[in-house]
Amino acid sequence: MSRLGSFFFLILILFFAFSGVFGTIGTGNVGIRTTLGVISPDEIGPGIYMKWPFISKVQEFTAKEIAIDVQDLTPKARDNLSLRDMDITIYYHVAPGGITELQAKYANQSARDEESGVWFPAHGLVSRLVRNAAYEEVSRVDSLILHTKRDEIAAAMHKNVQAQLEANDPKVFSVSRVVIRSVMTDPSIEESIRAAVANQKRLEAMTIQTEIAKREAQIKITEAEGIAKAQAIISGSLTREYLQHEVNQALAKFAEKGSAHTVVIPANMSSTPLINIPSPK
Description:
This is Band 7 domain-containing protein. The protein is α+β, with helices and mostly antiparallel strands. It contains six helices and ten strands. The longest helix is centred in the last third of the chain and has 51 residues, at 187-237.
């Protein structure tokens, strides 16, 4: 091909490109072609593709992770009290090879991102499932403790939604995680929660005080038992013979004093007192 021919060929390509004959699919996305109302079974991979003006259209769907915000939910707890507001975000992605089938099956469930123009497959389906899961899982928990169960509820919702998606479309959806961003209870419930927390704190304080009193009482009992045992040991060792021996020793020391003239003899004394009477000078 001559240089002039190559130039005209390049001009022709540019003309087709700018006239809308060619299109591009971004990395991580796939294109779904619909020709005369019939969806092509094969996805268009990332790169350049040929358009067929007036005959077909190509929609670009993302196969990347999608985040859906589900807001302003008011589910009822197990005690039949409704939340004032609950906001959730679910993260999921769809297998690239399953997007065509999803589009054929759930044609009205996809949503278009206005900023990028890319479509989110089964957006409406996943939104509905996570909304239903929120109402179902919250109904299993009492409102007074619901604020402490956010992680457990989110995990249960994750499992719930994944199971339903897998049951209807095996190996197509993958839910990454569910995040409960906000839980706002009714003012009366919040007051009950505050009262319950305050009562719990008082109960904990009373429990600690009771435990301290028990420990102090136990210490006193232990000390009393120790004293009683010591007294029992002493009492057991003070025999009649031992006491008499001690009396004799005391009297002997008393008698040794040169100035002693008087001796007090205990009652029932069986031994002979030792008396030191000074000799006359």
